Amino acid sequence: MDLKIGERFVMETGSSDFSKTPRRLGEPAPAHRWPHRPGQALIALPKADAAKRTNIELFDAIVQRTSVRAYSDEPLSLEDLAYLLFCTQGIIKPIFFHTDTTHRTAPSAGARHPLETVLYVRRVAGLAPGLYRYDPYEHALLAEPFNQNGFEEKWAAGMASNRFEKNAAVSFVWAAVPERVTWHHAQRGYRNLFVEAGHLGQNLYLAAQSIGCGACTLNVFEDAILNELCGLDGYKTFAVYAACVGKLSNERETK
Q: How many Å apart are CA 19 and CA 33, to the nearest integer?
């Protein structure tokens, strides 16, 4: 059969025979977290429950969930950002499942948690504009190399010039580390990367509503540009999903 690439992906990741996975062959598990660079600044975040939240019921949040594409110029508070990060990837408790791992706010097959969060911050009170990475183990931000000269134009190109993204207070990029899941699920683990990105995206939508924010997830971006800007190599680590967040505007464009 002359299969297209998407069709081959489905067929070639279809096996559920895990008898010869790296885990079953006794290979050591890959690290659960990205390492810190020497001297990298660590910025502690407020406690996850410090954000000012509404009393919206879960049912109402689900029914009212919508993609918001217009944001006010009001900055997020650092408490807001800490809350959104915890709701998407926060650690609830350590657990043991084949290896030491974690139970988090979003599910992950085999508790492998193969996604990392990179942020482009434009407007967060008390936080300089720039690139950051979230460390859920420390509930802290790591400042990434950032050259503001020309960055906004490059970022817009990476985000496929989605016009609404340009006014987001914060843009999220979820980066995949596939070796974490292929160790446990072999090539089928690649499916987990995209499924689990959806878990994080939905958590972000619901959490944003409870703090007076709007969110919109993005699956259309220029991989090569975004990977380069986020310090990803494009195959061992690569962007799988993105999202914009900002305070609600009176001129809401939703879907």
A: 26
- Report the Cα 162 to chain-centroid distance in Å: 18
Return d(Cα 167, Cα 69) in angstroms, integer.
9
Q: If you ran DSSP here, which 8-state letter would residue 248 be given?
A: B
Which residue reads 């879907």 in tokens? 255
Q: What does DSSP assign to residue 68?
A: B
Tokens of 165: 């993204």
Count of beta carbons in the 10 Å neighbourhood of residue 180: 26
Q: What is the pLDDT of residues 165-220, one digit of tens each?
A: 999 999 999 999 999 999 999 999 999 999 999 999 999 999 999 999 999 999 99
- The reply to whether the predicted model has a pTM over 0.90 is yes
User: Do residues 246 and 213 touch, judged by C-beta distance below 8 A?
Assistant: yes
Domains for the chain: give ranges and CATH numbers. 56-247 (3.40.109.10)
Name beta bridge partners: 133. Answer: 118, 142
Direct distance between the N- and C-terminal alpha carbons of the chain, in angstroms, rounded to an integer: 39
Closest CA to 208 of 107, 80, 101, 89: 80
DSSP assigned state of 71:
B
Bridge partners (DSSP) listed for residue 97: 99
CB atoms within 10 A of CB 76: 28
Look up residue 134 and give its two tokens. 């979230």
Greatest Cα-to-Cα distance within the chain, rounded to the nearest angstrom: 57
Question: Is the Cβ–Cβ distance between 3 and 175 less than 8 Å?
Answer: no
